[in-house]
Amino acid sequence: MISKTIAIRGLFSLAFIMAFCATEAQTIPEGTEQILVRVHEGGTQFVSSTINIAYGNNQSESKTILYPVKAANREENAKKINEVLYNIRKAGFKLETSHAGGNQAVMISTYLFIKE
User: Fold this and answer.
1) Are 35 and 93 in contact (CB under 8 A)?
2) Which residues pair with 87 in a beta bridge?
3) CA–CA separation, 50 and 63 (whole Å)
4) CB atoms within 10 A of CB 84
5) 20 to each of 8, 25, 83, how far by Cα in Å?
6) Distance spanning both ends of the chain, measured CA to CA
């Protein structure tokens, strides 16, 4: 059983970390143009591999990338993903933040671009 002291220290540590992370977050001014790119790279027949692009004006598009994610397809998929990201940067947007995570079945990467 965990002692009360250890539990309280853990809660204070968690609260400190959450407060620190909250102060580090940047705010994007209202009306700033942004583009969200989400890449789903699936490794099974149940998960499709796509690049989803959401523009700030309620427009979106989807691009298919090769399935499944295996050695033979990785290079081609990287080229397609790079082409999308490059075209967004070329249009005057800069990468604000990115995040990726997943498991054995799927890797999801998210990129948020804002207009410079």
Assistant:
1) yes
2) none
3) 6
4) 18
5) 18, 9, 35
6) 53
The pair of three-digit structure tokens given for residue 35, joined into one six-digit string: 């583009």
Residues 54-58, mean pLDDT to the nearest whole number: 88
**For residues 81 and 51, what is the distance between their CA atoms, to the nearest angstrom?**
7
Q: Please report which helix (H) or strand (E) contains residue 36, including its range.
A: strand 34-42
β partners of residue 111? 37, 98
Could you state, in order of their start, the residue ranges of all structural domains in the chain? 34-115
Q: Which residues contact 54 (CB under 8 A, 6 or more apart)?
A: 35, 36, 37, 38, 60
Q: Say yes or no to pLDDT of 16 above 50.
A: no
Phi/psi for 3 (5° steps) reads -70, 160
pTM: 0.71
d(CA 95, CA 25): 15
DSSP bridge pairs for 36? 54, 112
